[in-house]
Specification:
3 helices, 68 residues, mainly alpha
Length: 68
């Protein structure tokens, strides 16, 4: 029926799409990075990775705005 989505994954995807970041707008890539099944990380580490990716997207956005 319905697929359960990770809220952190959706937040990163939304920001990547808003910023036009094709590298981070791949759901499969982000799912593999955030997936506990594929990597042995705990919830705290998963949250830190999510925060890092969000920071990268924001920095890339600021850099692209400063070029204009």
């Amino acid at each position: 029926m319905y697929e359960k989505k990770d809220l952190n994954l959706l937040k990163i995807l939304q920001k990547a799409r808003i910023l036009g970041d094709s590298e981070l707008s791949s759901e499969a890539l982000l799912r593999s990075l955030l997936s506990v099944e594929n990597t042995q990380i705990n919830e705290e580490e998963k949250a830190l990775i999510t925060e890092l990716l969000n920071t990268i997207v924001e920095a890339k956005n600021k850099a692209s705005l400063s070029k204009d």
